[in-house]
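call fold(seq) -> tokens
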Amino acid sequence: MNNYDLNLILNPNLSAEQVGTEKEYIENAVKAAGAELVGLEEPGSRRLAYSVAKDREGYFLFYAIRSQGNPEKQIAASLRLRDNVRRVLIVRDRPEWKTKKA
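ret:
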């Protein structure tokens, strides 16, 4: 099984209900691609380095995903269709990136 990081930036002007709806849609899209959710880190609204769709802030969500195949294209394609999703990044988690070199 491969581990992936799914990083999303949502519209910063969403209400709590709308964020919940987006999170539910994201979870369904991940499950439809044959992957399972391992964890969620939700830092919330953060300032962006540059404007995205004329917004200087974004609502961040970081998911940890586990999948047997390569679900990157299918998940990213379905999430990019949403109006409130500003950016999608799926990266394969590599353990050697987390070790410190002496």
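The two ends are 29 Å apart (CA to CA).
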